[in-house]
């Protein structure tokens, strides 16, 4: 592969669409984003995305696809992987949308690789962020959901359907709250932002705004609100137990935690650490380190670029 | 590599030492075993092992190490990996014993690879047993402990210290019984044979023999003893929840369960399946299949041979 060409990176989520040109070292050269349109049909959504990445390519002075090494794209799941046929939960306009094929048609002659957004975030954090230099990492996003991606023995793990890394559905309380997946007591059922806010309201917390958010709850916790603090302890404990289990199973060195809720800082990370250390007691599991993610909003784009620019570690199905 | 030579395979456990010559396809040509000596010092243990594998090589008509492709060895942990410096929990005579170096000195000029015994069992089941043809498998052993090994994206996963696969320390009941690791509510704390027998005795089960074993308990359960049945349900549930978590995290296709307790059959596997299906509710996790291990006592030897004979999939640190 010609290692001198940049990649087009695309990150498709329920709240925003983002595109960037990344240089071969994974640095973002140009980028742009737009809120994910609501209420549009499949073709209208596609045209919004196409306008976005066309603009980014123009901005980077790229007029011919042949100037690119390829196209990497992260997208909300579920999807058929590696076919790149996507049905993002939060984008009802796309159901079994042939995203990979459409990208390949728009930018002919290039490798086009689509993967789950949480996996791209983990790949980005591993390649250029908090997991750099560690061969065994779990990258987590704690936000509206709890997602993740695994890098083991120096390679991104896909699993049988491209869904490896779903730390959000590790069970931490078998008789606990119902999860969106239909199970009970998953990490996500307890630690996702909306679950946290709902739990706090049950405990008597009264948000200032109509749409009670975990962000507001974390803000109140920072001011010392006891229910806010208890909610973050509860989430931290669930995350810590889930991380302990993942560490035992995968012999991890580092867990990078990002996403909106991770902004709560020590109010979340302290109880997380406490639960983790209570449960990770084997010599090898004690070694694991939990660190904040380093790339913020860029992680998904950098990871999408990695599918092309560092394919030896981050892409295996071809 | 010359693909026509056999490997010497060695399996070192707390109850038995085994050695075999395996042909390049992983079939055992000759084998022998002996109970693990109790009360011997490090050198006496080594001489017992050396006599065992020397006999097996003679039996196979191998008089020169150059006739072998290499030596693969599974050994009880913990160990320094890949250095092969071992301190098997159940063999107090070996503490920081330089097993790999000793094997290399005894059989000069060959690659010598030592890995955790549970990982060798999983590798064996993947290469030649119940996991054959599946790129994503967890191999489990449910016995005195609960161990395992992971194959993901077609390769054996090592993790940062060669300890990946420790399904026994996934947490399934955070406030549950104390585990040997120091944590609480690990799969192993509930489902290991001795824990099961102890729990049953607390519930009023009276074993016929002084050393109440899970085997006897399973026998009583098969006769309809209600505490025996409850004990197997309890173990099955813990295993099922642990497998659900592992499936979510690793996107597994198949889980192969072996070890003494797996002989209990449907009395264990039915509650295991029930708990698994209650908790594995995502489209991709529903696909996972739990199957009995296929190789029995040979799995560890076959997996040890795989470290040499199928190193592209089962050995990466060199």
Give a quick set of tags describing it.
homodimer; alpha/beta; Nucleotidyltransferase, domain 5; 2 domains; 11 helices; 13 strands; about 40% helix; about 20% strand
CATH topology of the largest domain in chain A, by name, is Nucleotidyltransferase, domain 5
Question: What are the low-pLDDT stretches of chain A, counting only 5+ consecutive residues below 50?
Answer: none
Q: From the coordinates shown, what is the CATH architecture of the largest domain in chain A?
A: 2-Layer Sandwich
Helix proportion of residues of chain A, in percent? 25-40%
Number of domains of chain A: 2
Net shape of chain A: globular
Separation of the first and last Cα atoms of chain A? 14 Å
| Mean pLDDT metric of chain A | 96
Report the top-level CATH class of the largest domain in chain A: Alpha Beta
Biggest contact: A-B, 54 and 54 residues
CATH superfamily of the largest domain in chain A: ATPase, nucleotide binding domain
DSSP strand content of chain A: 15-25%
Succession of helices and strands of chain A: EEEHEEEEHEHEEEHHHHEHHEHH
Radius of gyration of chain A: 20 Å
